[in-house]
From TrEMBL:
InterPro entries: Ald_DH/histidinol_DH (IPR016161), Ald_DH_C (IPR016163), Ald_DH_CS_GLU (IPR029510), Ald_DH_N (IPR016162), Aldehyde_DH_dom (IPR015590). This is Betaine-aldehyde dehydrogenase. SUPFAM superfamilies: ALDH-like (SSF53720). It comes from the Bacteria. Gene3D superfamilies: Aldehyde Dehydrogenase, Chain A, domain 1, Aldehyde Dehydrogenase, Chain A, domain 2. Keywords: Oxidoreductase.
Amino acid sequence: MTLTVQPHRESVGLKTGQLLVDGQWGPGSGGGTWTHRHPATGEEIGEFAVATAADVDAAVESARRAFDSGAWSNSRAGVRIKLLHRYADLLREHAEELRSLQALDNSVPLSFSGNIYATSVEAAADVFDHHAGWVDKLGGQTLPPYQGGDHLAMTFREPIGVVAAILPWNAPFLLFAQKVAPALGAGCTIVLKPSEYCTFTVLRMVELLTEAGLPPGTLNVVTGPGDPVGEALITHRDVDKISFTGSRGVGKHIVEASAGTLKRVSLELGGKSPALVFADAPNVGLAAATTIGAVTMGLSGQACVANTRALVHREVYDEFIAAAQGMAAAITYGDPFDPGVLSCPLINERQLDRVLGYIEQGKREARLVTGGERLGGDLAAGNFVAPTIFADVANDATIAQEEIFGPVLAVVPFSDEDEAVRLANDTEYGLGASVFSADAQRAFRVSRKLKAGTIGVNGFQIEPHLPFGGFKQSGLGREGGLSAIEAYTELKSVFMPLTDELM
Ligand code: NAD
């Protein structure tokens, strides 16, 4: 039977996507639209407006006016805290609807978005609650006088201004929250650009924010592809900060393109995160299932922090590969609304071609254990790729170095701890790493030596209060925790004599 998601489209009641400028939803000024096609079926799902440079101008101007008015940027902490908590509750109330919209946008199955914390609506709501907690604690310092004379030396944290928030398509709930919650918590105003491959989910999340009572103009939305919409945003004179999550190439381009006005820039980019499996791992089968699970379940390896490089001690190498192969065989594909479906297709044909190209490269570089092909039959109209494992991979092979963003695991053998750490760090990326060992001293010793932003020891989780971000070319800055909300502020120092002596 041919796969179709059309009945779900009807039941979710998907509307045409519009821009939000100054509190008003409307079509783009140029009349251009983008037709979104479902990655599992190729069916047309819906249309949304493509913003013009003039629309981006209007959105930035609206955010600037809202910021300068102080309606949000200068609002009392209590007002902001209550709104962020109210919104978190609204997200929880609408969780099912949002998960369905996501399944229509990017085909991430309900089985995954409902059960895996980091990609759940619950996690996004928790991020809003977490940042609400920082709003009345964003304080400065009062410092003792450095030189003679009686005076006060103080620091204040003030909102940075207008933020351009640019999202990728793969984890809309968490990534929307990790940008919007701290930016609003700090008092900034926002122009948001969702990915053209996951727009409808984000538009609904924005609608709920207006229902929560956010003043008009505080958050504006421009939709459409990176070029021209994102491009107009990152080069806009009146944007103070860019907060971007996406690929390394676009991240580097943003740094260059925004240099003219020296915008503040936060970047959450890609990775080639290693899982280090030592011979004393508490359960090699579980380590293998966790590793290949992160590369195949739910997102088909289209996750920034998926450990797509397994570094495995030679003593447990064969056991690891056999267990990973067993797990790979259990992954199911199809209708994302079917509770029995565990994973998704690649997001578009460009990405499908790219991943299949890497797989062909892998066949020349290493030993193919399983997968290595596009899925056909009932799934032929979608961008499905079989879970793929390559063994005996050299760490300098292309498939061990480049972010493939697909269901491809490269397994590299090692002989001792020093070699494992050296291989793990031998990459241009540094987003995450996992260590599997029952020896607590080894696990901590190795964790300290790994050049990566987040380390999992016998398990991996992204939590709202734990800073998340990359070393090296995986990014600039962190999301989550106090440092995340501080990144939406400028630090101001004030000097004030207490006598006439210093004036
Ligand atoms: P992408 O870089 O293609 O697109 C990301 C966003 O940037 C989209 O909204 C896109 O329209 C926009 N964009 C593209 N070109 C632009 C330009 N010239 N100017 C401004 N905006 C532009 O990435 P993607 O395919 O959506 O997402 C996958 C990438 O995101 C992977 O590399 C993945 O590792 C990374 N990612 C990182 C994290 C993290 O937290 N570190 C999380 C999720 C995804």
